[in-house]
Write a structure and sequence with these properties.
With about 70 residues, the chain is mainly β. It starts with a helix and ends with a strand. It contains one helix and six strands; from the N terminus they run αββββββ.
Length: about 70
């Protein structure tokens, strides 16, 4: 079940850049704090509260442009 929740928050995209889709399958009305590992040694941390992304940290910072926020609230 935890794996399903993780994939709802962060999904790898099928591209050569190793991009990630953030909140591609996450309901806006569910609050979440997360720290997940993505492709190419990327760590994504954030906080979603009341449908608003309050914080987002991508490590390393050079991978920030490869994280696509799919949140549609």
């Amino acid at each position: 079940m935890n794996t399903a929740y993780q994939w709802m928050v962060l999904q790898p995209a099928d591209d050569v850049d190793g991009s990630m889709l953030l909140f591609a399958a996450w309901p806006c009305h569910w609050d979440v704090e997360f720290k997940l590992h993505g492709p190419r040694n990327t760590t994504v941390m954030g906080d979603l509260k009341n449908g608003e992304l309050r914080s987002l940290v991508v490590i390393p910072k050079s991978r920030t442009n490869n994280v696509y926020n799919m949140l549609d609230c």
